[in-house]
Amino acid sequence: MDDKDLRELIGKVRDRPGLYGLDGTYYPTVTFLVGLDMGCSGRLLDGFTEWLLRRKGEESSLGWQALTLEEAFPDAGIRHWGALTKDQEQLAVDRLFSLLLDFLDERDSA
Fold this sequence. Notes:
Elements lengths: L2 H13 L10 H14 L8 H9 L7 H9 L13 H24 L1
């Protein structure tokens, strides 16, 4: 599966999560993406954490799962999905997909 196919699949999952067994909440979406990444030998998320850190302009030991939450809620200090309210879940998922698609676009153009 090349990057174009991955971007297309990510777009489909974002648009119709229920078709992929997802309920629109953050943790299952993260779990799905980790499994997808494993299924393509780490190709999907290769460099994603580093890309997020470059965007922040900071060093951190956090993984992409926490970094995307920081991006979604910069002033809230949310770094774990257990801290999300029901209302924040969809925003977190939307931000995750947005960041991942931006990353794949940038990685493709490099």
